[in-house]
């Protein structure tokens, strides 16, 4: 019997997160492992009068590409990709994996080269998003692979995912609208502030947010959601930080990441595991060594680290920051082919200061 929660998530993604309208060109992407949710989103987009286009992909294709592609293939951008990024109105991505470690044996240099080649596409995508010409949302379909990473049974992981998406509420869309109102109070408290400082074990980092815009993440781009974010002044980041949890990207877990910043730039980086991959990504392009995002996790219902950034960056009482591309709507000017989120946990030790006053302490936002 189909899980009715899948249809509930599809409704949120289509009706609330992207607010699909009649006549819009909607691209729905995801691996075939997510087939039930891809079809549910497709059906809902049809019901809204849109023109949905399903783009399912095969789970093993990425591994085959990176193991076989030559330099020309790594750097190739299909003309259809350019057409897509200029013409699409809505993009809904559904994450699903049968093996989250499938790319762990790939040469990091190949991944970095391919990422660099995609830089113009990512830049244009984010520009159209910031201008309101393109709307996107990211969801997740629970699989055994995700459940294993989270050290849960599939049933427990499904409950975790759907609870975080608020599908158990009488009206999930109304529930996310309520979240949006609560997030706005945090954004209001941060607006007009100048400096942020993060103090935690092996961490003392300062950055300027003067003149930058704080944005609430209320289920419109990510589902689930729960953060407020901005783009730091590019040259302002100074100090050092040790990230609490493994930084997961493209099938690799980079453990015990430590970064040292001077005038905004990462001048030194280390990791206990997969350090070579970390440094390859930092060399992807000039923008990869600068912060594109600084964010505060606000979702108190997500407390367990699951090795999935869609959930982990939302953990209430944490902060995260992304090396690489910033979101233009925040005022960020940092351009890069990568956007890699890393999390620092402040729930037990440490605090976040805004203009010299505590703003986050013991896992709580003090507003």
What does this structure look like?
Helix 2 (35-47) links the parallel strand 1 (25-31) and strand 2. Helix 6 packs parallel to helix 11. By secondary structure, the chain is of the alpha+beta class. The longest helix has 19 residues, at 172-190. The chain has 12 helices and 19 strands. It folds into 2 domains: 4-172, Thermophilic metalloprotease-like; 176-365, no CATH class. The N and C termini lie far apart (45 Å).
User: How many helices in DSSP terms?
Assistant: 12
Mean pLDDT: 93
Number of domains: 2
Annotation, overall tally of beta strands: 19
Shape, principal axes of CA atoms: globular
Classify the beta-strand content into a percent band: 25-35%
- Poorly predicted regions are none
Q: Helicity level, as a percent range?
A: 25-40%
Tell me about the largest β-sheet. Answer: 8 strands, antiparallel
The helix/strand class is alpha+beta
Spatially, the strands of the biggest sheet line up as 13-12-9-6-5-17-18-19
Distance between the termini: 45 Å
Q: Radius of gyration in whole Å, from Cα?
A: 20 Å
Keywords:
367 residues, alpha+beta, Thermophilic metalloprotease-like, 2 domains, 8-stranded antiparallel sheet, 12 helices, globular
Secondary structure elements and pairings:
Elements: H1 4-17, E1 25-31, H2 35-47, E2 51-57, H3 61-68, H4 71-74, H5 79-87, E3 90-95, H6 108-117, H7 119-130, E4 135-140, H8 144-149, H9 154-164, H10 172-190, E5 195-200, E6 203-208, E7 215-217, E8 227-230, E9 238-242, E10 247-249, E11 252-254, E12 258-262, E13 265-270, H11 275-282, E14 291-297, H12 309-312, E15 318-324, E16 339-345, E17 351-354, E18 357-361, E19 364-365
Parallel strand pairs: 1-2, 1-3, 3-4
Antiparallel strand pairs: 5-6, 5-17, 6-9, 7-8, 8-14, 9-12, 10-11, 12-13, 14-15, 15-16, 17-18, 18-19
